[in-house]
Design brief:
5 strands; 3-stranded antiparallel sheet; hpI Integrase, Chain A; single chain; two-stranded antiparallel sheet; mainly alpha
């Protein structure tokens, strides 16, 4: 089964998740004496190489925010880079859950794009005009502007293309609850951010007045000109543009926000339990994977370790050469002879 999933284009991480879910289900069934053995333990799932974090340095983070300061979405990037919010949590922030008096964010919602599902009776027939069963030629010009390349051919019993279904349901941009209970914990807002938040709110009021009747109220902090929440795809594209403007090498959005916040907090001397609380991780081991060590911090730590164990070094005596020693002896001997003569 795992081999078939990999051949069909599923990522090893996806297959590993399927293995864990299946193994857990079979473990419970074995505990309840429904089955005689958990066969999932007899199979080795595919190994997954963990992607190494590539956060901003402090200088890169400042350059990135300087580039973002020229755009109306400046505060969105301050929250992402400076506070370590996930993309969905940032775009899902609402003014109702901003406590200016206590200077707290309450991330109760996140913005997610859910996959559309067919609402018709025959999903295969519904998407018939969009089915493509043959792969694209090597010199395909139809999808030359696709960032992910040509789409894969459809399977014979394809039930996809629900976006074109007239009765589609359950998809699009929706507000959902965060992934864990701890993700909803309040996060302190840095005091320097407060004036910028007030200015951002005034800017949004001007946008609402300009839009007039076309404004759609979602109470979101970061919106499009018509009041709708920012599209995650457009948000990702803007991140790439800001990287280029700031002269920073390409990296993931997660590296430039969540990993950067954790790493810079660590460089500022914040202890790991506090970083875990700020990033709202369930376990501290998860935070350690987010925080990337810096070479200069390691060198400074080992310097302090050496100073702690080794005695303070005294000033080295001036090296004595054979010529200077010989000359000194002769001068002393001559002075002694002169005293005897007198």
């Amino acid at each position: 089964m795992y081999r078939t999933m990999l051949d069909n284009g599923h990522a090893p991480s996806h297959v590993l998740k399927v293995h864990r879910i299946l193994s857990r289900a079979l473990k419970i069934a074995h505990r309840r004496r429904i089955i005689g053995e958990n066969v999932a333990t007899l199979v080795d799932p595919p190994s997954v190489d963990e992607t190494e974090a590539n956060p901003f340095t402090t200088e890169q983070a400042k350059a990135f925010l300087q580039a973002a300061a020229k755009r109306p979405t400046f505060m969105r990037w301050c929250v992402g880079v400076g506070m370590g919010f996930r993309q969905g949590e940032t775009l899902g922030l609402r003014w109702t859950y901003v406590d200016f008096e206590a200077e707290l964010f309450h991330p109760k919602w996140q913005l997610q794009r859910l996959t559309w599902r067919h609402g018709c009776a025959d999903a295969h027939a519904c998407g018939e005009r969009l089915h493509r069963f043959e792969p694209c030629p090597p010199d395909c010009r139809t999808h030359k502007n696709y960032k992910r390349g040509c789409p894969k051919p459809c399977p014979k019993d394809c039930r996809r293309h629900a976006t074109a279904c007239p009765d589609r349901k359950g998809g699009g941009l929706v507000f959902t609850r965060p992934k864990t209970k701890k993700s909803t914990n309040p996060v302190p807002i840095p005091p320097p951010f407060i004036p910028y938040l007030h200015a951002h709110k005034e800017q949004q009021e001007e946008m609402r007045a300009t839009a007039g009747d076309s404004w759609q109220e979602f109470d979101a902090l970061f919106t499009r000109p018509d009041g709708r929440p920012l599209d995650p795809r457009a948000d990702w594209a803007e991140f790439k543009e800001l990287l280029e403007e700031a002269g920073i090498t390409d990296r993931r959005l997660y590296d430039g926000s969540r990993h950067t916040a954790g790493t810079i907090l660590n460089e500022l001397g914040v202890d790991m339990p506090t970083i875990t609380e700020i990033l709202r991780h369930t376990q501290i081991s998860q935070t350690r994977r987010y925080v990337k060590g810096r070479s200069h911090l390691s060198k400074d730590a080992m310097r302090r370790m050496g100073d702690h164990f080794m005695p303070a070094s005294e000033a080295a005596p001036e090296p004595v050469t054979e010529t200077r020693t010989e000359t000194a002896d002769r001068r002393a001997a001559r002075a002694q002879r002169r005293r005897r003569i007198r």
